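Aim 2 progress update. The chain analyzed this quarter is reproduced below.
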Amino acid sequence: MKNYFTKTEKILWLTSVTLITLSFLIFSRDGYLNLAASVLGVTSIMICAKGQPFGQLMMVFFALIYGYISYSFSYYGEMLTYLGMTGPMALFSFISWIRNPFSEKSSEVKVNTISRAEKVFMVFLTAVVTALFYFILKYFKTANLLPSTLSVATSFAAVYLTFRRSAYFSLVYASNDIVLIVLWILASMKDISCISVVICFTMFLLNDIYAFISWLKMRERQSEKENENEHQKNYITEQGL
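Predicted structure tokens:
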């Protein structure tokens, strides 16, 4: 277990936690719930990058805390997205990942490839959910309505791909991070303490990009292993063993 995380992963996680903590101490110094959520979030991303279901369980708790934080800033879009969508979907993803290990002796999730037809369905479903949330957010007079609505779209697509175990879920989460960085920059113009949240999501962005690369490598490795096993089975069959 000591060598489970690579040197790069350890450096990335430690750098992320350090910058998040420093920014909190410099710009905020209160609201330790924000700091806890940030550290929990970046840790869950790193664990998910390894294909471990436990990372999704951590994301459930992050969604609960971040939803409350968003509510305090009148970002009802973020609150509804995380409490009503990201949190529950993270729980469903946790169950899905546990039920689909790469092998019986491994806790690593099996990477899935979705069809073109399902991609079209996902885009259609995302558009429907986004349109619905737009009117809901408008009714609640959500701050920065358009970026908040865009955040709903990217969040829904990301949680859908996470549930379906697609390697591209982290890439879509990265696009969501960019939207959130913009949202919290706007908030920091009114409250300088929000800069710590901007730095937090910047670290999330870097970690999500790394997670995407990690899953592409994981998919390739799993595919090679499956081909190797298939060749062994064919050889045994041909030899009549």
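The chain has eight helices and no strands. Residues 173 and 196 are 19 Å apart (CA to CA). These observations will guide the mutagenesis experiments scheduled for the next reporting period.
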